[in-house]
């Protein structure tokens, strides 16, 4: 963010032999990522990610195996993974997203019950609810309890995987390829990747086999064809074994990506509601005016609550789940983008600087201040005249690699946020000895990610 203020909305870095370009404005993202089709839609080589995920992770998978940069592991054909993304996008289309609403409603109702009886375990309950919704969607299975050992194992596996992906956590084999030849005793990251890959594989086999049994008997989750799980859906497509393997492993990615991002948003929402009681009170009054006290809010009510919509958008803006998105990678040369005559060479890593853009004082008035009213005053919360290239999907990525589940994710955010605001009053904890408020600021996150 500091560099973008100094060097502009497009600047580049040389990291070893590779080039990285950082995009920090809506116009820059539109010109480089959106308008260039496949040219900037691949992913950079990621040796550790490929080793940990076994090459079937559609979020990390390259769009072409013809990149001049080396890929160190045998991976599925790029066409298989592109087809997988297309099928996932159809499964999570806006029309099909409506069929997921009963699952989201059940998940949020269970979450309210758990918070009511055990408010001290709100973090575990939120994570269970997020994982349950995605497991039902992907495999047709649910998590019965926030203390479920399987749920805890899943999140430990997920955090180990995220730790592997954090830049700087391990030496970069992509920049120094000779590191892949180090003996295991000098390369502890290799063992960590293999352990995570084994855990991913075990998770996938356990849940996919159970889904196949339910698909054969049609007795499992009781869903209609329109509301069935992802695994049940692809089992009826007549795919080859290779295609089925690539697609079925995608179920792991859906659970991993969907559950963690939904939980991250809801935990940020709870924190912000506690820190800003005045906004929480106003949101509750808006919900109560539409819904009353005799029933739970439903997704159909959301269109009548512009302030709650503004509150959700401001939570996403001030604390984006992916501050720098997921890197893109150019497979073709991108040049002559007016009016800057920009040139991006092939094999350039492209970073979407989402956090910097959401906190740019040229785009937002007082960007460090939490102010939902900005989204009442303008569609995207921006300063007057700054709406030209802005859109409300930047937190889900851009271009051809935008998150295919964004419609389901938005519905989950809207429905759960309404119900949490309607049912509870959140406040900061108080130290019983000093009687001082604990953590009354927007940065009060547990580094381990559990609270």
UniProtKB/TrEMBL annotation:
Q: In which pathway does it act?
A: Secondary metabolite biosynthesis
- Is Cell wall biogenesis/degradation among the key words of this record? no
Cofactors needed by this protein, per the record, are: heme
Q: How does it sit in the membrane?
A: Single-pass membrane protein
At the top level, the lineage of the source is Eukaryota
Alphabetic keyword roster: Glycoprotein, Heme, Iron, Membrane, Metal-binding, Monooxygenase, Oxidoreductase, Transmembrane, Transmembrane helix
Q: Name one GO cellular component term.
A: membrane
Q: Which GO terms describe its molecular function?
A: heme binding; iron ion binding; monooxygenase activity; oxidoreductase activity, acting on paired donors, with incorporation or reduction of molecular oxygen
Q: In which compartments does the protein localize?
A: Membrane
Chain sites annotated for binding heme: 403
Pfam families this protein is in?
p450
Q: What protein family does this chain belong to? A: Belongs to the cytochrome P450 family.
Know the name of this protein? Cytochrome P450
């Amino acid at each position: 963010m500091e560099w973008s203020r100094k060097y502009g909305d497009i600047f580049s870095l040389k990291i070893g032999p590779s080039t990285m370009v950082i995009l920090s404005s809506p116009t820059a993202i539109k010109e480089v990522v959106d308008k260039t089709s496949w040219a900037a839609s691949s992913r950079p080589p990621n040796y550790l990610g490929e080793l940990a995920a076994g090459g079937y992770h559609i979020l990390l998978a390259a769009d072409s195996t013809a990149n001049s940069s080396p890929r160190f592991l045998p991976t599925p054909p790029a066409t298989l993974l592109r087809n997988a993304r297309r099928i996932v996008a159809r499964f999570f289309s806006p029309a099909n997203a409506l069929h997921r609403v009963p699952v989201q409603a059940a998940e949020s109702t269970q979450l309210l019950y758990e918070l009511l009886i055990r408010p001290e375990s709100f973090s575990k309950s939120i994570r269970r609810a997020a994982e349950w919704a995605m497991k039902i969607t992907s495999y047709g299975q649910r998590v019965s309890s926030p203390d479920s050992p399987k749920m805890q194992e899943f999140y430990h596996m997920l955090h180990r995987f995220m730790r592997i992906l954090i830049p700087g956590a391990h030496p970069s084999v992509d920049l120094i390829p000779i590191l892949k030849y180090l003996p295991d005793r000098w390369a502890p990251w290799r063992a960590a990747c293999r352990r995570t890959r084994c855990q991913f594989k075990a998770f996938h086999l356990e849940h996919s086999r159970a889904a196949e049994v339910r698909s054969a008997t049609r007795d499992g989750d009781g869903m209609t064809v329109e509301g069935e799980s992802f695994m049940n859906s692809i089992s009826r497509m007549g795919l080859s074994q290779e295609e089925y393997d690539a697609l079925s492993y995608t179920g792991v990615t859906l659970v991993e990506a969907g559950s963690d991002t939904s939980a991250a948003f809801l935990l940020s929402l709870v924190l912000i509601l506690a820190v800003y009681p005045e906004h929480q009170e106003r949101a509750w009054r808006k919900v109560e005016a539409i819904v009353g006290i005799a029933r739970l809010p439903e997704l159909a009510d959301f269109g009548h609550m512009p302030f709650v919509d503004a509150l959700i958008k401001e939570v996403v803006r001030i604390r984006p789940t992916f501050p720098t998105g997921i890197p893109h990678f150019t497979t073709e040369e991108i040049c002559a983008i007016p009016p800057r005559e920009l040139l991006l060479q092939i094999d350039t890593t492209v970073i979407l600087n989402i956090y910097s853009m959401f906190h740019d004082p040229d785009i937002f008035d007082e960007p460090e201040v939490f102010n939902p009213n900005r989204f009442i005053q303008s569609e995207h919360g921006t300063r007057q005249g700054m709406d030209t290239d802005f859109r409300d999907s930047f937190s889900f990525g851009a271009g051809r690699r935008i998150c295919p589940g964004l419609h389901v994710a938005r519905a989950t955010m809207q429905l759960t946020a309404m119900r949490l605001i309607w049912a509870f009053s959140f406040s900061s904890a108080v130290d019983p000895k000093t009687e001082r408020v604990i953590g009354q600021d927007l940065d009060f996150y547990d580094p381990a990610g559990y609270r």
